[in-house]
């Protein structure tokens, strides 16, 4: 009777009741894998006699009960922090449980926030797609990205995702999109801004308008004819070419708007059609032709205030197909505030009176 009693008392103590949960690594960071191992030190080679199950906060993990004493978790996140343990079930359906282990998953704060553009360099053609890419060098968990326009910080969009990069898209870039931009990223440790990025929207030139200005209503040989060409729309700098019967007379560059002018001393061969061309490297546009007919030399009894003679000089046209090539230009005259018009159609005498010193030929607006 006594031996049997001793056996009953000893039986629970002799069962492989020592069960350990091993966590590797013991202090995981977000996004990293973790391996849980249910180990029975007292049994070295008979683990196959058991089935194992792993738990977190009373919830079974993975496939539930299995013969494997290990559970691989591919990615641990902040919300996976909690109390973990494992259980082993014997062939006799006896269940053993390990001690609980607290696992705290550490979040890495975002750092080194940057803003890049596609296309690169911050220059985009009008009408094309523009993408602002916000990136962080490090950071884990859900990251909130915010995009801002202008130094005052107009919020354009907010995205929260488990990624180190996020994109904000402008499907069709417009002139009003030319501005400074920046982005902000944060994952619970405070916002981190990027630097400012300037966006330039490149605009092709519109069809230019050609104006011819002479010192009298009927130009004569010896007069100085002023040709003024201007594209009302287009990114600068703009190079203007002047033509007489499709023969190049010269060129002039306008770095900041207002068009360009070219002075021509008339000879008997200068009757005919004039035109100009504007080009800013995004495509050339040609003006309508303007016809100029004139007579012989002016009378010596009719002295005329002469316009300044062209002053030849050289200027590098950066948008030329051959960068650095010097192109001849001429000194521009100050632009007049009001003009009269005479070309294929002549304006009224009232308009002529506004410019008693000369006369102008110009193309009509489309």
Automatic annotation (TrEMBL):
UniProt membrane topology term: Single-pass type I membrane protein
Domain Ig-like as annotated: residue spans: 16-97, 109-200, 208-293
A Pfam family annotated for this UniProt entry: Ig_2
InterPro entries named in the record: Ig-like_dom (IPR007110), Ig-like_dom_sf (IPR036179), Ig-like_fold (IPR013783), Ig_Fc_receptor (IPR050488), Ig_sub (IPR003599), Ig_sub2 (IPR003598)
One GO biological process term: cell surface receptor signaling pathway
Region annotated Disordered, chain positions: 292-366
Signal peptide: 1-16
Gene3D superfamilies: Immunoglobulins
Compartment(s) where it occurs, according to its Swiss-Prot or TrEMBL record: Cell membrane
GO cellular component, one term: external side of plasma membrane
Keywords: Cell membrane, Disulfide bond, Glycoprotein, Immunoglobulin domain, Membrane, Receptor, Repeat, Signal, Transmembrane, Transmembrane helix
GO molecular function terms attached to this record: transmembrane signaling receptor activity
Domain of life: Eukaryota
PANTHER family named in the record: FC RECEPTOR-LIKE PROTEIN 1, IMMUNOGLOBULIN FC RECEPTOR
Identification of the protein by name: Fc receptor like 1
Organism name: Piliocolobus tephrosceles
Record lineage: Eukaryota, Metazoa, Chordata, Craniata, Vertebrata
């Amino acid at each position: 009777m006594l031996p049997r009693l001793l056996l009953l008392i000893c039986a629970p103590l002799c069962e492989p009741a020592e069960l350990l949960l091993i966590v590797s690594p013991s202090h995981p960071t977000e996004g990293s894998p973790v391996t849980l191992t249910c180990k029975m030190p007292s049994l070295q080679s008979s683990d196959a006699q058991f089935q194992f199950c792993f738990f977190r906060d009373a919830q079974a993990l993975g496939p539930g009960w299995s013969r494997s004493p290990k559970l691989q978790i591919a990615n641990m996140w902040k919300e996976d922090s909690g109390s973990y343990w494992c259980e082993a079930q014997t062939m006799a359906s006896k269940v053993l449980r390990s001690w609980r282990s607290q696992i705290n998953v550490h979040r890495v704060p975002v750092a080194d926030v940057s803003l890049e553009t596609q296309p690169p360099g911050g220059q985009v053609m009008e009408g094309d797609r523009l993408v602002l890419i916000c990136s962080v060098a490090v950071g884990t968990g859900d990251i909130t990205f915010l995009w801002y326009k202008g130094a005052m910080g107009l919020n354009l969009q907010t995205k929260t995702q488990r990624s180190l990069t996020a994109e904000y898209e402008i499907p069709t870039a417009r002139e009003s999109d030319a501005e400074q931009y920046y982005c902000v990223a944060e994952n619970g440790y405070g916002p981190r801004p990027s630097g400012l990025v300037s966006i330039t929207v490149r605009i092709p030139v519109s069809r230019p308008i050609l104006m011819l200005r002479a010192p009298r209503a009927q130009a004569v040989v010896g007069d100085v004819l002023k040709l003024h060409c201007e594209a009302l729309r287009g990114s600068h700098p703009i190079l203007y070419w002047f033509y007489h019967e499709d023969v190049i007379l010269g060129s002039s560059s306008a770095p900041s708007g207002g068009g360009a002018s070219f002075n021509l001393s008339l000879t008997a061969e200068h009757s005919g059609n004039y035109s100009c061309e504007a080009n800013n490297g995004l495509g050339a546009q040609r003006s309508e032709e303007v016809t100029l007919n004139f007579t012989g030399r002016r009378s010596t009894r009719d002295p005329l205030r002469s316009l300044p003679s062209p002053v030849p000089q050289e200027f590098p046209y950066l948008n030329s197909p051959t960068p650095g090539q010097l192109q001849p230009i001429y000194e521009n005259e100050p632009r007049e505030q009001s003009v009269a018009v005479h070309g294929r159609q002549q304006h009224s005498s009232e308009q002529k009176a506004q410019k008693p010193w000369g006369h102008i030929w110009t193309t009509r607006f489309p």
